[in-house]
Amino acid sequence: MEKHCMDSQVKGVSTGTTILAAIFDGGVVIGSDSRASIGGEYVSSKTINKVIQVHDRIFCCMAGSLADAQAVTKAAKFHLSFHSVQMESPPLVIAAASVLKELCYKNKEELQAGFITAGWDMKKGPQVYVVALGGMLVRQPVTIGGSGSTFIYGYVDAKYKPSMTKEECLQFATNALALAMGRDNVSGGVANLVVITETGVEHVVVPGDKLPRFHDE
Amino acid sequence: RDKMAAAVATMMPNLGQQISSKNDMIPDWTSQEVSTGTTIMAVEYDGGVVIGADSRTTTGAYIANRVTDKLTPIHDRIFCCRSGSAADTQAIADVVTYQLGFHSIELDEPPLVETAANLFRASCYRYREELTAGILVAGWDRRKGGQVYCVPIGGMLVRQPVSVGGSGSTYIYGFMDSNYKPGLTKEQCLELTAAALSLAMERDGSSGGVVRLATISEDGVERRVILGNQLPKFSTH
User: Fold this and answer.
1) Which residues does UniProt mark as catalytic (chain A) (predicted)?
2) pLDDT tens digits for B167-201?
3) Contact B181 A158 (CB under 8 A)
């Protein structure tokens, strides 16, 4: 992600990051790289955390400007906790995604942000939602985003299977992030992954030297 | 006509976009250059190379040719895969074919793949400001066996065991990095190329149609086509 200056004529600028989320049998894995860069020339942070917890079992990742990310997720966190108190039950994943969608859609002229929301709730189990740049909300079993994602569309299309085990899904996500970081110069650092299931939340961090290597490395 | 279009483009750079977005009566293919926005791939194996390409040529949103052959023979055992402007790549390929043919007669032996690649590089680098051409040169010769050389936009030359090019290639870097290993057999290379091209064609709007493959080895050139309904399928969601 970059702290980038608002140029409203440049729509659809996807900034330096790779994010993904994928459903497996019983839960969901959401993950991202950890690089923050300025203009693609300077790495301002090697270990930034882009997987943000908005509620107990709901996380989101963002592709876009860092300023927008922080503002929108702060607003989403507030809305969700209030909603959860009113409903006297944990919020649904679609509620979290809808909050983000409302913010993105209502402010589409000012914001340049795309979100991936992943989580688990009692009603529908593990879910992944993506809020695209203009504010469209779509549910998908697996989704990728950010500048690094273009390089792994083929890999994800070929490798993702709907009913993987947790270990297979973690390996799939780690591989996908490693491949994207290998080709995208504004994605890098460590792979930050979060596994969300009915029973709880598990953080997995794969440091750079433990990432899978491929034939030319 | 090209000069006029170029002059108009330099004087009024936004004219093309204005015409296409503001006036729907004029279709964009009247103002857009013919492009082989494409996906091309070449893989070395022990004894030869496998090359592949999609078959779509576009002028803006119109598909000018849906069964294009982007695998162009340069010599008996040397081919090139073309991406970028259709006109530029055809012109360069014609020039190199002539130069290489002449050179081969002078030598009185089959030319080296590296020679062909260098001829491409020479043209692409010298005229880099005017050209939009990304080319993969692949073939077999007695000295070094199967070789793949990449000559991207700008005119660099690098030999790689496996290389992809064109607009659709960005989507399959991850797939290629994870699935290619040195020491694959010819059949495995063919499968890898067909799978990679299918994945790219699914995601890239400028790539599509059929998959054209060719194998080049000491025994010669073997061409095949995989039609749309026979392409490998992946769990789509």
Assistant:
1) 17
2) 999 999 999 999 999 999 999 999 999 999 999 99
3) no
Nearest to A177 by CA among A164, A201, A194: A194
Q: Which residue type, as a one-letter code, is found at position A111? A: L
Provide the terminal-to-terminal Cα distance of chain B, rounded to the nearest Å. 45
- DSSP one-letter code for A132: -
Residue A3 C-alpha, separation from nearest chain B C-alpha, in angstroms: 25
Q: Tell me phi and psi for residue B38, to 5 degrees.
A: -155, 180
Residue B199 with chain A: CB contacts under 8 Å: 153-154, 157-158
Chain B residues in contact with A183 by the CB 8 A cut-off are: 173-174, 177
ipTM comes to 0.79
For B156, residues 6+ apart whose C-beta sits below 8 A from its C-beta are: B121, B125, B150
Tokens of B111: 């030319």
Report residue B51 as tokens. 């090359």
Q: Around Cβ A46, how many Cβ atoms within 10 Å? A: 13
Inter-chain touch B236–A150, beta carbons under 8 Å: no
- Whole-number Å distance between alpha carbons of A72 and A140: 22
State which residue of chain A sits closest to B169, comparing Cα positions: A151
Measured distance CA(A170)–CA(A192) in Å, rounded: 11
**In whole angstroms, what is the distance from residue A31 CA to residue A164 CA?**
16
Tell me the whole-structure pTM to 2 decimals.
0.83
pLDDT digits (tens, 9 = 90+) for B137-164: 999 999 999 999 999 999 999 999 999 9
CA-nearest residue to B236 within chain A is A157
**Contact B234/A158, CB-based, under 8 Å?**
yes
- pLDDT tens digit string along B28-52? 777 777 766 799 999 999 999 999 9
Per the structure block, which two tokens stand in for A93?
Answer: 């994943």
